[in-house]
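S.,

Sequence below, as promised.
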Amino acid sequence: MDHQKLMHELVEFRHSRGWDEYHNLKNLAEAVNIEAAEIMEIFQWKETTDQLTDEETTHLKGEIADTLIYLFYMCDQLKIDPIDVMKAKLEYNKGRHWKEDKNV
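The prediction came back faster than expected:
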């Protein structure tokens, strides 16, 4: 499935649940951070990622998906293509000199 079809399905799912009114940029940004914190929680107190159990890996996949879904919803609100912004950022990063460049 391509990302545009996925974006459409995500938006339709949100609409079918009546969540549109809650999905403003502020709320979505908060949700992204909450889900990202749940990713970090999986790694809390671990020395290496080699210590992940199968159950933790499954949990991690779910939290990554939750984070990406909220980011896709943000892209929808902003009317931007997530692949296009990642490509643009990659091209920008290719020209950066990490020790000298303080801008992100």
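DSSP finds four helices and no strands in the chain.

Coffee later?
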